[in-house]
Protein 1
Amino acid sequence: MLKVEDIVAAYGPIVALHGVSLEVPEGSIVTVLGANGAGKSTTLRAITGLLRPKSGTIEFEGSRIDRLSAEEIVSLGMSHIPEGRQLFSELTVLENLRLGAYSRFSGTDGGSRLAQREDLSPLGRLQHKLFHAATGGIRDVARGIRGYRQRRQDFEAALNQVFDYFPILAERKKQIAGTLSGGEQQMLAIGRGLMASPRLLLLDEPSMGLAPMVTREIFEIIRAINKSQGVTILVVEQNANLALEIAHYGYVLETGRIALADTSENLRKSEAVQRSYLGQ
């Protein structure tokens, strides 16, 4: 599904990736391990168009995407859950989830009407209007009622699925996102990504700042998303134990280069991985 080949990426004069190559087969969970500064987040940023590679190629479902914008890449079926969650902290849980679905409805009558539901706060309605204006406004409202109903059903189905994975979000859907606990915010960030119905989900350090029990719960849900929905997942993570426990394949990144690549089972047996990442 995803093929990254010889990617070189830099921040100004500082080269962060030195010819990184990796593959993510459809239906799999692949993890990228590495210490702080190894280039893990940069790899995800390059894949999702937030950082344009200096050289190399990136293919998604057989088509090159390394010269597309981030918005175009999202529209192809890719969701990026960034490090640190990056929620709209002043909006409610429900409003954040609606924004996650925006790429599915933008530029349609359904997108506009879902964005202006009466249970949104004034700030939430303004946020939706700004997003809608940026994508060109309402188009062909006359196509609307029948198509809108179908999109509304799809939206509600996606929302209910997120609430099935994260029941606490259903309980707190009217709560301001910035007042949630760290674990709840991570659940909301993942839920927001799922609202776009991605075929490929990219997660950057989902365990960061979370208690061990909450981290394990998050990883079990990640595994369930892959198994029950068939969503392909690429997860960048420092918690090698949990990442290799749920992944099918893994890469170890060191100073912008792939140092090891193997099945998760073999990586867990590797003396180098045990010594550097598994605390053994």
Note: The CA atoms of residues 252 and 258 lie 6 Å apart.
Protein 2
Amino acid sequence: MAHHEITFPITDPADILKLRAGDEVTVQGRIIGIRDRTQIRIFDQGVEPPMDLSGAFLLHTAPGVRKVSTDAEGRGTYEKVCIGTTTSARMVRFTEGLGEQYGVRAICGKGGFPDVAIEPMQRLGMVYFAIVGGAAALETTQIEEIEEVLWEELMPECLWKFRVRDFGPLIVGIDAHGNSLYHDVQARAHEKLKELYARL
């Protein structure tokens, strides 16, 4: 297992291709919070995202925040309260479009992606980062600032831009070479079940 430090958004696809399933990653730079309603608006309703997603790291989240001010145009400024992750599997159908149409390169959430994500992630040069569920308190300390919030009417499922420092450590759950820790664990579990049933 190797350890990598990567700054997002990335401009060089080689930063993603060097990652292998099981590697550990610490993230610097900026990551984008996204969730179901945001992606439904983009893909099901055909609304272009108002934020550049090229080379982006997307975090599946609907953060707990506190509004501290509103500008002359009605846009809010927010401070973090608790920013954790939500389950990714239900959003797997958006993966191909995020990579193909918008250039997203990394997705992170809780619980992993099923096998249907492996082929498009390999073809498009994307990775899925695993993060420990229930670690929201730690994750929140690694987010230095909420820099931008768009589509506030979807609160809390807006588009969020977070500046992070030493975010992680994360584990590469699915790499851009067709490898998936989730697939491997499921396969080993099925084999173990066969052995157990054979003993009955």
Note: The chain is about 25% helix and 35% strand.
